[in-house]
Amino acid sequence: MTAQALIPAVVLGIDTPIGLAIVRSLGRRGVPVYGLARSVAAPGLSSRYLSEGILRADDAAGTLEQLEKLAQKLGTACLFAISEGDIALLNRHRAQLSGYRLMFPDARRMETVLDKRQTYAAAAIAGVPVPRTVQPVIFAEAAAAAPALRFPVVLKWAEPNEAGILLRRAGLVLDKTRYCHDEKELLEYLRQFEPVGRYPMIQEYCAGYGLGQFFLMHEGRAHCVFQHRRLHEWPPEGGVSTLCESVSLDCHVALRERSLALLRELDWEGIAMVEYRYDPERDEAALMEINGRFWGSLPLACHAGADFPWLAYSLLGVGAAQPQPRYRAGLRCRFMIPETKRLARLLFQPGAVADRKLVFSRAGELFGYLRDFLRPSTRYYLFTWSDPAPFLRDLWHVVRRTG
């Protein structure tokens, strides 16, 4: 693509490794990148590939005004958003963003993946396996279903954003995931939601590790495909990926075809991550969720050669489709601060791990943590030799907060 064909990009949310990965992906190819950050601690503000960094306004109206002024300054530009909250905000105000080519799904499509009931309904049509799930409407339904469940179970909210608002109003805390190990523990936990009249989904536990399959979709076709497995998470029982490894496209071929069928069933456009729990002993997978946005482990895909931000910019932003890239399998990527927190919990607080089926060797975990510093195939979410300043900025602010 010639320099004349490039248009600027604006990234709303350069506070995370995801936003930084987008800045690096586009900036290293000559795209002028403008980033909005919530605080001066944002690592993306120090990237050599950022044309201009801006501290975003404290409120939604101010942020929209900043974006409108940028559009007037830049002319036609691509707009990337990182968080689901920001995507929802921008989707509500699409009419004010007419100067941008929007690099995120519209509200209708986002709703289908944010509401797990819609996701699982589409999965049933596409033949994608899902864990056994109970969605109680009243407490009595949960009590009736509990004796037949296979424990442990994992509790998740079908619509976490909406549920979070309702729970906060009632003075309750939303747990993104909650493990319950027997019927008594389950019902005691659920009883607190009776005054609200809303309950999380109850899913039977799926053994194995996290397997992510990633796609760039346009008009029913996958223009880029990538997959990885999660090796470590924070918290250890499941959450943010802290160590992940790229997996060859020769693996999980049949499952990937079902993932594609699922995205087509949802009429998906743009990037998406289809996340499974995969049990290698039984060669069985169960769908966890779909992320309809750039995902936390995006730096791994970029390091491996599946450069999704650039490919999405090329395809959806300037209409220049790129071929499926050949990426490197077996590459690892580490998110060092939560990876270190994970190690500390396993060494000093192993009883705090909610998933009691997980078994760890303290010596093995410590050895693996140190060995990965020497592994030639290890990369990092924040640190790169070509752009070290974001890592140093992040480290400085971490030291200041803990000092």
From TrEMBL:
<dbReference type="GO" id="GO:0005524">
    <property type="term" value="F:ATP binding"/>
</dbReference>
<dbReference type="GO" id="GO:0046872">
    <property type="term" value="F:metal ion binding"/>
</dbReference>
<dbReference type="Pfam" id="PF15632">
    <property type="entry name" value="ATPgrasp_Ter"/>
</dbReference>
<protein>
    <submittedName>
        <fullName>Carboxylate--amine ligase</fullName>
    </submittedName>
</protein>
<dbReference type="InterPro" id="IPR011761">
    <property type="entry name" value="ATP-grasp"/>
</dbReference>
<feature type="domain" description="ATP-grasp">
    <location>
        <begin position="120"/>
        <end position="317"/>
    </location>
</feature>
<keyword id="KW-0436">Ligase</keyword>
<keyword id="KW-0067">ATP-binding</keyword>
<keyword id="KW-0547">Nucleotide-binding</keyword>
<dbReference type="GO" id="GO:0016874">
    <property type="term" value="F:ligase activity"/>
</dbReference>
